[in-house]
């Protein structure tokens, strides 16, 4: 379990599936995650297949005060040879957005990935029009590394993706009080 000031994060369990399915199937969220509709049975199969997959860590995010589920965040494609992984994050409960909880979740995941797993680089691939996540990443020190042009075909259009990356040295440097 990862404990923050306002949130806690635990590896995803069966009981969390209903929330993930509800959030991912929300049209506005599906649009930025670029996801197909998902079902509970399909997500259950995916979770049991991936629970012990060493190339990913799938966390659920809860409010610390009452353990209400509010979102999820993953490390994917963990590459131990090149010491890097991809990050994803979703605050599915829209009522708690705008309170700095995504920032806290991203900070906790960065500490976990860099300081506990010892990875050297984290990166994200996001639709160029997803300004909230691009702004959040920039705030956390991620740099834009390039554009994957016409990377995915979704809702009748090819969508460009922005690649952003953060190095362990850059994260550690930011954490040193100035
Ligand atoms: C992106 C997301 C995680 C932000 O969640 P949140 O809880 O509202 O974010 P926070 O309150 O922690 O805000 C942190 C920073 O994100 C940026 N941000 C958040 N919402 C924003 C918005 N609507 N417009 C522009 N920037 C925004 C800002 O830089 C903000 O910092 P600031 O408040 O100091 O300006 C949330 O909108 C979300 O889950 N979106 C759907 C999923 C998604 O797009 N995930 C990315 C693909 S993996």
**Major beta sheet summary:** 8 strands, mixed
Shape: globular
Radius of gyration: 16 Å
CATH architectural grouping: 3-Layer(aba) Sandwich
Number of domains: 1
Which hetero ligands occur in this complex? Answer: coenzyme A
Keywords: Transferase
Protein name: N-acetyltransferase
InterPro entries: Acyl_CoA_acyltransferase, GNAT_dom
Pfam families: Acetyltransf_3
Entry keywords:
6 helices, Aminopeptidase, single chain, binds coenzyme A, 178 residues, alpha+beta, eight-stranded mixed beta sheet, globular
Structure commentary:
With 178 residues, this protein is an alpha+beta fold. It has one domain: 3-Layer(aba) Sandwich (Aminopeptidase), CATH 3.40.630.30. It is built from six helices and eight strands; from the N terminus they run ββαααβββαβαββα. It has helices at 17-24, 27-33, 40-50, 101-116, 131-139, 168-175; strands at 2-3, 7-11, 57-63, 69-79, 84-91, 121-127, 143-154, 157-167. Strands 1-2-3-4-5-6-8-7 form an eight-stranded mixed β-sheet, sandwiched between helices. The model has no long low-confidence stretch (mean pLDDT 97). It binds coenzyme A. Residues 29, 32-33, 88-91, 97-103, 126, 130-133, 135-136, 139 line the site of coenzyme A (COA). It comes from Lysinibacillus composti. GO terms for molecular function: acyltransferase activity, transferring groups other than amino-acyl groups.
